[in-house]
Amino acid sequence: MNHPTPPHKPVPRALRWLGGAVAVLLCLVVFGLYTVPEFMVLLADQMWACF
Description:
0% strand; 2 helices; 67% helix; transmembrane helix; mainly alpha; transmembrane; membrane
């Protein structure tokens, strides 16, 4: 039996903007960490510890 799917509720515009802003902020924080030499050494040490 083929039941029709109910229509999806549209996501409010403010919620989409908020999600996009959070994603951009998170990316800026992560990319900003790559400018900290101590973080890069820590990351390299953790990667090396996997082998």
